[in-house]
Amino acid sequence: MWLFLLSEILLFGGLFILYSSYRYKNPLDFHLAAWELNRALGTINTLILITSSLFVALSIFFVRKGNRQLSSLFLFATIFLGVLFLGIKYVEWTAKIGHGLYPNSPRLLGRSNGEILFFGLYYSMTGLHGLHVLVGIFILSVMLILTIKGKIDEKHFIPLENSGLYWHLVDIIWIFLFPLFYLIT
Amino acid sequence: MKYKTYVWVWVGLVILTGLTVSMAGMNLGRLSIAMVLAIAAIKSGLVLGYFMHLRYETGLLFKLMIPIVLAALTIFIGLTFTDIAFR
Q1: What are B26-35's contacts with CB under 8 Å, separation 24+?
Q2: pTM for this entry
Q3: How buried is residue A27: exposed, middle or buried, by Cβ count under 10 Å (0-12/13-18/19+)?
Q4: Which of A39, A126, B51, B63 sits between 20 and 30 A of A84, alpha carbons compared?
Q5: Does A185 touch chain B (CB under 8 A)?
Q6: ipTM attached to this prediction
Q7: What Cα–Cα distance (Å) separates residue A49 from each residue in A57, A61, A118, A138, A141?
Q8: B6 interfacial to chain A (CB closer than 8 Å)
Q9: Domain carrying residue A143
Q10: Which segment of A28-32, A86-90, A162-166, B1-5 scores lowest on mean pLDDT?
């Protein structure tokens, strides 16, 4: 599992290098474009993901203690927060697309090169991250079913543990994405 | 490991998030990028160390994996930037 996570770090790491080199070349455009992102929604989403990370950690903690009920409850809360995250992301993207800011849109193409790059990176990086959240929700849902059925208990909790690790990594990636796109202006 | 530890780590993460967001409002110039990235690094360190309990893992190979990947990334970032800066 850890090897897979490390390959994921390298995947996103490549994108982060792309981001920083384009930012280095177009500092002013990136500065202006970042102002247009909704900082409040980004902050709320950060808090949601951090809390969901806590919940999945608690879920693993309680299943190891043999308390499957509490574990399922926390797992359900994690999945709920994951869905909430994607919901907010959907609202955010819809607003941006509503303003005519999406890849190849006439409005965006009329802007400077750096801003086009910024929004291209914004959509591809948060999009790839969103895809990871979606996969995480699916995996955690399977784990929830297995926990309720009793297939995961204090003796057999490794699948849940690995799903938790994956979820934490998705959280870490967002911890870096959030300041880079929303905060550094 | 007690569940209280997890809750405290969570409190720390929330405080650090509040710190970065409030710092973005100030005009710190170039320093702000460094500060924001430093806080992000501390936050991911907390998640890795406690939530992903890397702090409690044993085995040298296990402990070396993350630094090796981070070193590889640093080398790539360094090489890319020397390329861009001196082109």
Answers
A1: B32/A184, B33/A184
A2: 0.92
A3: exposed
A4: B51
A5: yes
A6: 0.90
A7: 12, 18, 23, 16, 16
A8: yes
A9: 2-183
A10: B1-5
